[in-house]
Amino acid sequence: MRFYGLIDELKQDQPSGLHTIKKVNKKIDENTIIKWEHPNPSPWFFAVGGIAGLIGYNVYKMLTESNDFEISVNSFESKDEIRKIIITKDSIKGNYDIINSAPELFYGLFDNLLLKKQSLKKMLESKGGSELIILEKKSLPANSHYGGKHGKFTTGLYCEHPKNSSILIPVSNFNEIIKSLILEEIINSFQLLGAKHIIIEDIIKVTGGIGGGKSEKAKINSDASFIRDILREKNYAKDKFQPILCVKKLTFIPDYPHIMNVIDGRINGNQTSDKFSETIDLSANMDVNVLNLFESNANFNFKRKWNFTVEFYDKNELKSE
Known about the structure:
Elements: E1 2-7, E2 17-23, E3 32-36, E4 44-48, E5 51-63, E6 69-77, E7 84-88, H1 98-101, H2 116-124, E8 131-136, E9 156-161, E10 164-170, H3 174-192, E11 195-205, E12 218-220, E13 226-235, E14 240-241, H4 243-248, H5 257-267, E15 273-281, H6 288-291, E16 303-312, E17 319-320
Parallel strand pairs: 1-8, 2-7, 14-17
Antiparallel strand pairs: 1-9, 2-6, 3-5, 4-5, 5-6, 7-8, 9-10, 11-13, 11-16, 12-13, 15-16
């Protein structure tokens, strides 16, 4: 898995590339940088946001203010002129204290996290081993933003879209973005298949007191064991029946069999209503240990139970695409 640290600009005097560390026994001066031309340069192949190229490299050694290890940097030079810093758990030899010993490598990306060292560890060990790629946000293609070509990147930590690795999503509010993407995909699919009325509810278990005043859109069950939070309620006039466009736009929905049964019932039959429940995974197979670093509620349940009530127009009353 790849995580991305998007920043405004890399320091011009800081070599970019794969950062590795090793133990040294001699004392070194602070901020010493030594350039060493590799005798047998090798071609590298890399891809960021769909950009690929063959890269020749020079090797730099940048010695940090720490006296017990050094950081080696393979500095990339690309025809696409993308400078980046790549950090993995293997490249830093498991020494996560590098985030404190060499903070200049991380450009303040972890400063809002309480335990920076532990956070870096969880990120780089995610899914058995991940990369943190630090690069300038302006170097990414416009269509790599989760909001589309008009989306604007801000600085911060991002991860790959779970269904499209060329699209990036901020880690800090990942679950809310995934929630919105799934909701809008479901609603759009039902609408294209001739929906008349849609209600989608999030069923929230209550483990203690209900607390302050209830939301206007929340209904509390009589036994006070859960709350029904209405996520979306939509009504539609008669429109076109567009199954081809519906199938073309499916991204997250194929992971959910009950929703797919409704879509199949509309495309291959003339089902006009349904009530059902589906367990929706807001982590979208992302490492929950990483997501919890940014979730204010440590006990947040990424697996949600959503209730659906949907009513469709008779297909015979709709125009076909």
